[in-house]
């Protein structure tokens, strides 16, 4: 397929049937709408392009900045679209909660502005929240912001009413599915798709999924947060239920490992929420001898959520480390093996030792640069840990004095090196703090 | 139809729970001393200081925990803290009178930190007794230096309070800007060079012992950024020949008022729904606490203290010290330690967590509204006596029935009440929230507002209409016996009123 612009590749995503052996629903055909296959990687490509297009075509090559409240896929799509038109993009967000997405946005040339946290010494008369100030800045005369306003812009819904919805109907041979399951973020996709499906068949049942209130799933709002979305209309949904991040990850793993779909947690939540709701429907259908169909949206891909998964389910990204590690030492082993040396003796050893010890400062490079023991070298603990496993840059014949702030880490490493066969490794007792307190000299870089 | 009870029941730790369980004791106190009445547990403040100290120990950090005196006027709390290890616990005073009070309660000058905006008298006494002066501005430094020289006061330890970390471009990651509320206090980091120059100019009068910040936010990221910036600025100071040792991270560690996350979540969700009009109001005249309904969408931010906190107080400090810093990547605890800095904290609310309660007598109960489903409960206190609303804190009081008035009739079940004060003023509501109690209170019962020692108890108390201001008592326990004395009579001795014969 040949295109003049990548924007032409937005939309027309596949609808893939999930193997019943995976979901276990014997009377329901469950389909995944693979929005993750849009060119910028998510369902947000459609509304981003549809909302920004009028601005972009008018302002291309000018000095405007596209601005949006987004910490995820909308920001990603808008950053690329803005760049494509020679414009800048600024993302305003409460908190970037997925570090990879932050870095990805920076790579795409976006500017990120994070709003202040909640006040601790509350002034109840100050109801001027940071968002109000954001909107004030946008309406100041002479500003060059192009605000796409995804939570209130009807073009967000239109993008799906004109694209996603009709595509689903077409791929189901002109029929609407009996069920449509969508995670509610901006409410754009669920509202737009539901509109189209209901025009075809008013009996379509729409299930909205929100994140459990104390939980966080990227791209899904909690029940309180959806009330703050201008596009959200409770009448769109036959029911709204919540899903947890654990369910989202379960669903994501099923889609990845059993269906060949590289879904992110949002798609996982949609799958898991769909199967949970449809299980009881399936049981009723079994008696009636009927078949139904259901569609859910796979919003984006897995790769950006590794740290999200690591925080919640580290075992999924497991794999054990090999080689020597301080974590393998017991307290009694540390006591038995580690040799310590006080400040005065250490000074004498450094001045008169034959050979003189190599002094290794395990602190961070900034701290080392600010103040350190003259003649010491700096190997920051993280690097030292790696070197212990892979190979140390000094011989076993070299006597070593290890130093850290209070003599705790150095003690563990002294024990470990002794276990590894280094005959003369000592830890500076009570560390560089004790060295300073004893009035021993420290130098600056 | 009755409203389903939306409780926000308080978190009550064992010492306070035990006090609350002694209903006859609390009734007898109010019988003697009147309503309202504040009750403090001075031992708990010492336990809390110890909890903060244990976070220090876990991170191998040295330095003092300073009690922000403004959270509570009590003498008992300050005297109990004065009796703690002098190397571990100090006091942060924000006025001349607080300084005098701290000194009279047993704090020596070297354990005192003077913060906030200061007048000449405050500066003079702080300098005279050897307190550390937390400098609010360059102007204050000039004023202090002039006082020191004029009155021969000797060199004064000072901390320099910094602010405006947001606009600091020197060390931030490119492309990301974390916004913060602007503070009126402190020297903006953009003007830091002038501050160093002034400190050098006044070296005969002051000794820079460290750098400080205090951010009004619950956001850890903003605080981590400020803390890291201070660590880097400490190195700049040292490079200029100054010798600071301390980073002071201020307070704002928070308190969890509501016991159960579920209750807090249900209530806040219901507030949104009430603002949208899909459920009956939860508040006096449909007050939205800052939320408003614009065409079916909720706008604005709820001006509420986050009353359920999974992590607060010492746990919050622990998190702050453990998160990776944005520029150097290592956690603040490691940075402080490696750069050879001590840590000061100034908790107020968090240090007096679970230290006390405020009691009010129920004066009158009458039904209101259609079908009389709700009641007005008038209390022998006003909104100034427990300033819950003033701080956006929402939490239920505990009902302590008057034993001799309890009849044998069956319990009539949970009921929604509006708590109104003793002032002749429409706005005198103890809380705007419709409060659910397990049963309808009766005149003579007590309501106990739990965990009020931090800012809620006496910060806004006043003499309007010549209504009585609460007396405060300190309660101690020895060998199972509960003793009490007036706050001003408390001293941290085993037998304050003499050894029993």
Please write out the topology.
The complex is a heterodimer of chains A (445) and B (501).
Chain A: E1 15-17, H1 20-23, E2 28-34, H2 45-59, E3 65-69, H3 73-84, E4 88-93, H4 99-107, E5 111-114, H5 130-139, E6 145-147, H6 154-171, E7 179-183, H7 188-200, E8 205-211, H8 223-226, E9 239-243, H9 245-259, H10 265-288, E10 292-298, H11 306-312, H12 331-337, E11 339-341, H13 343-352, E12 358-361, H14 365-370, E13 377-378, H15 381-390, E14 400-403, H16 409-419, E15 425-428, H17 431-437
Parallel strand pairs in A: 2-10, 3-4, 3-6, 4-5, 7-8, 7-10, 8-9, 11-15, 12-13, 12-14, 14-15
Antiparallel strand pairs in A: 1-2
Chain B: H1 14-21, H2 23-33, E1 37-40, H3 42-58, E2 65-68, H4 75-82, E3 89-93, H5 96-104, E4 112-114, H6 120-128, E5 132-135, H7 138-151, E6 156-163, E7 176-178, E8 187-188, H8 192-201, E9 206-212, H9 220-239, E10 246-248, H10 261-276, E11 292-294, E12 297-299, H11 314-322, H12 332-338, E13 342-344, E14 356-368, E15 374-379, E16 398-400, E17 415-420, E18 435-437, E19 446-450, E20 471-478, E21 481-486
Parallel strand pairs in B: 1-20, 2-3, 3-4, 4-5, 5-6, 6-8, 6-9, 9-10, 10-13, 15-17
Antiparallel strand pairs in B: 1-14, 11-12, 14-15, 14-19, 16-19, 17-18, 20-21
Helix pairs in contact in B: 3-4, 3-11, 6-7
Descriptive overview:
The complex is a heterodimer of chains A (445) and B (501). Chain A is an alpha/beta fold. Chain A folds into three domains: 6-39 and 154-317, Rossmann fold; 45-147, 3-Layer(aba) Sandwich (Rossmann fold), CATH 3.40.50.1100; 327-437, 3-Layer(aba) Sandwich (Oxidized Rhodanese, domain 1). In chain A, 41% of the residues lie in helices and 16% in strands. Chain A has 17 helices and 15 strands. In chain A, helix 3 links the parallel strand 3 and strand 4 (88-93). The longest helix of chain A is centred in the middle third of the chain and has 24 residues, at 265-288. Chain A is elongated, with a radius of gyration of 29 Å. Chain A starts with 14 loop residues before the first strand and ends in an 8-residue tail after the last helix. Chain B is an alpha/beta fold and 501 residues long. Chain B folds into three domains: 14-41 and 354-486, Lyase, Ornithine Decarboxylase, Chain A, domain 1 (Beta Barrel); 42-254 and 309-344, Alanine racemase (TIM Barrel); 261-299, no CATH class. Chain B has twelve helices and 21 strands. Chain B has helices spanning 14-21, 23-33, 42-58, 75-82, 96-104, 120-128, 138-151, 192-201, 220-239, 261-276, 314-322, 332-338, and strands at 37-40, 65-68, 89-93, 112-114, 132-135, 156-163, 176-178, 187-188, 206-212, 246-248, 292-294, 297-299, 342-344, 356-368, 374-379, 398-400, 415-420, 435-437, 446-450, 471-478, 481-486. In chain B, helix 3 (42-58) crosses helix 4, helix 3 runs parallel beside helix 11 (314-322) and helix 6 (120-128) crosses helix 7 (138-151). In chain B, 50% of the residues are buried. The mean pLDDT of chain B is 91. At the A-B interface, helix 4, strand 5, helix 5, helix 14 and helix 17 of A face strand 7, helix 9, helix 10, strand 12 and helix 12 of B.
